[in-house]
Amino acid sequence: MGQEIQIKGKDGSFMGYLATPEGGKGPGIICIQEVFGVNTWMRNIADDLAKQGYVALAPDLFWRLEPGVQINGEGETDFAKAFDLYGRFDVEKGIADIQDSITALRGHHGASTKVGTVGFCLGGFLSYMSSVRTDANANVGYYGVGIDSKLGEQANMKSPLMLHIAVEDQFVPKDAQKKVHDGLAGNAKVTIFDYEGQDHAFARKGGDAYRKEAAELAESRTLDFFKQHLA
Description:
Elements: E1 3-9, E2 12-19, E3 26-32, H1 40-51, E4 55-59, H2 76-88, H3 91-105, E5 111-120, H4 122-133, E6 138-142, E7 161-166, H5 174-184, E8 190-195, H6 212-230
Parallel strand pairs: 3-4, 3-5, 5-6, 6-7, 7-8
Antiparallel strand pairs: 1-2, 2-4
Helix pairs in contact: 3-4
């Protein structure tokens, strides 16, 4: 079980959910939220990474709009609120908050100097952006929405990136997926895995789209990737 802490950023302090491994120390991972905030699922992700030996921190990236958002359902009202927040979210400020979170975690709370990111949906896009705009050591993005619109930034990619793409993603059309594949094909820092037959959020345990086999395969690849780059 983790705890809520305050992250001191350049624009103010905001909440983050921190989970630490049994030994109290390890490489750090920033867990980047979906459009549902730092909800039960994101906290579980951080807890699971802590069990694997990582110091995991899930920062509240919606704090400027509404601090402490936790949307735990998938009903019509839940999605309406989530998409409203997503529509008002400032990506540039979000990336700055991720960098502030990396800085806060690096060398503190038991974390080593190596810190990675892992994100889902909106967070998957922000993990891609973190590989370009932050000093994270490694990044993993699950079914990121909008990566195709920022492919021009890859020339400035600083750290390794792994992307998990849901082939039947209702929010990332196949033409957008093709742009990502074609655009990143020559980038030696990038590894991409496709999950045939899977929809958006196939790794969200308890969600409508969750598929155990695909989720566990993606998780094993993610953990191997972090072991390689953060150990």
